[in-house]
Amino acid sequence: MWGSLCAIATGPQAHRNLSLNANIFRQFCGPRETASTIDRMRRYDLRSDTLTKPSLAMRAAMAAADVGDDVYGEDPTVLRLETLVAQLLGKEGALFVPSGTMANQIALLVHTRRGDEVVVGEGTHCMQFEGGAAAAWSGVQFAVVGRGGLFSSEEVLAAIKPKAEHLPQTALVVVENTHNLGGGRVFPQSECERLAETVRARGLALHMDGARLWNAAVATGLTPKAMAAPFDTLNVCFSKGLGAPVGSAFVGSREQVRAARRFRKMLGGAMRQSGILAAAAIHALEHNLDRLAEDHAAARAFAALLGGIAGVEVAPVETNIVLLTLESADAHAIAQRAAERGVLVQAMGPRTLRAVTHLDIGEEATVQAAKILAEILSR
Fold it and tell me: Is 311 left (phi over 0), alpha (psi -120 to 50) or beta?
């Protein structure tokens, strides 16, 4: 049986053979939850765009990946991915890492020293959702500016500490684009360019947490390279909207990537034959970028069905995240009631619900989920 599996997954006939022998992949890898199967199950999972499962074609690419030992820098598929990402973003190099959290934490280690201060927007991921890692590993503190994840150059200027031995030293500014707690908001490119001028004039660095940069690029029509240009370093993710099972990349100059490689080792993120995972990321970049527009359309359709309900405020939808603010209802209780009806959404706080569209649930299923949630919210 394993010999048959290997025969399907390698060689020039891989994709044709896959269509003839998909049952073997399903036996070993399980069925993919497409929009149609979710409809039949009446289960609509909108908690996150990290819930996607690799397609059969992606699994075939993973099984066929040419691999080596990446700790020695000898995995050809990892090297191909890193070159592709660096080219897409217009930077000198990239480093494949297991998670976006690790990529962000590596950026903090590259740009700061213990006791430094990092300027961020409200609810920024590296401050709020990475387990306190910045305090544990980099020893930095945060200064929060702006509202809803967006901020201006003037607000950053006001936050920069003067040079004095009794003050923390400002070293880095982090932009999250798109912004999760901001409801998938896109950070305006013109402001990114102004920030770069402000930051560099004062000897600071600028990092983008671009876990959903791909969504921002599709929403604005700008290329990822153009959006990355103002930044010294970036984190980009392959396991959110793009549908890969795991992985992110730290992106920057050759010197920064060299330093990042050592920090990755220190954090336990160096992997051996990781080309199997890199192959999934390559497949995602080659096949799933443009279709992100479908997720954005589904999010708008979802929001439209909930916008007129009394006691529910729907944030403007820019990409694939819909945030609902409840006037009096308990978000956790609503999420529980929705789950009992087959609709899974995320309670982000006592009065906030989040729904995230993705490639494993189409617009028709998303609309059906919105109708069910609307019934619950209207009671």
Answer: left
